[in-house]
Specification:
The protein has a single domain, classed as Dehydroquinase, class II (Rossmann fold, 3-Layer(aba) Sandwich), CATH 3.40.50. Helices cover about 40% and strands about 20% of the residues. The protein is built from 5 helices and 5 strands; from the N terminus they run E-H-H-E-H-E-H-E-E-H. Bound molecules: 1,3,4-trihydroxy-5-OXO-cyclohexanecarboxylic acid (DQA).
Length: about 150
C-alpha cells in the first residue's frame, strides 16, 4: 500500500510559524512520526511540500498508477484552488483532506474547502496528530474498497 502525503504553502515553516495555532513540530518531525506509524502498518509513505500550486497539481497527477491514496494538507490552497480540486477529481485516487488547526473554528474564509467535495473526508484540528489520523484513514479507505 502506497500513500502520498502532500503539503501546501507555508507548511515548510512549521515549528516556527504561529506555534500557538500550528504547534512546535517541524514538517520533518511530522514526517518521521508518520513514517514510523506507516512502518507498523506495513505501508510506504512519500512526503512532499511546495509553496507552488502547480507542483501540487503535478504530484497529484503523478500519483495515478503509483499511489493508492493521497493525504493532502493543501494549506491556503484548500480555500482557493479549483486546480487542486480538479486534479484530485481527475486522477480518481481516494484523497483525504487534513489540517493541523480546526479550520471551522477560525476565520470564515477558512470554513470553505474547495477540495472537500472531491475528498473522502476531512480531518481538522488535531495538530500534528491530524497527519497520523490521515494515515489511519487512508489505510481504512483502501481496506474498504478492496
Ligand atoms: C492549514 C489551515 C489553512 O487554513 C491554512 O491556510 C494553513 C494551514 C492547517 O493545517 O491548519 O496554511 O491547512
Amino acid at each position: 500500500m502506497k500513500i502520498l502525503f502532500l503539503n501546501g504553502p507555508n507548511l515548510n515553516l512549521l515549528g516556527r510559524r504561529e506555534p500557538k495555532i500550528y504547534g512546535h513540530k517541524t514538517l520533518k518531525d511530522i514526517e518521521a512520526t508518520v513514517k514510523k506509524r506507516a512502518k507498523q502498518l506495513g505501508c510506504i509513505v512519500d512526503f512532499h511540500q511546495s509553496n507552488h500550486e502547480g507542483d501540487l497539481v503535478n504530484w497529484i497527477q503523478g500519483a495515478q498508477d503509483n499511489y493508492d491514496v493521497i493525504v493532502i494538507n493543501a494549506a491556503a490552497y484548500t480555500h482557493t484552488s479549483v486546480a487542486l480540486r480538479d486534479a484530485i477529481a481527475a486522477v480518481g485516487i481516494p484523497a483525504i483532506e487534513i489540517h493541523l488547526s480546526n479550520v471551522h473554528s477560525r476565520e470564515e474564509f477558512r470554513h470553505r474547502s474547495l477540495i472537500a467535495p472531491v475528498c473522502c473526508g476531512q480531518i481538522s484540528g488535531f495538530g500534528a496528530f491530524s497527519y497520523v489520523l490521515g494515515l489511519e484513514a487512508a489505510v481504512n479507505v483502501i481496506e474498504c474498497i478492496k
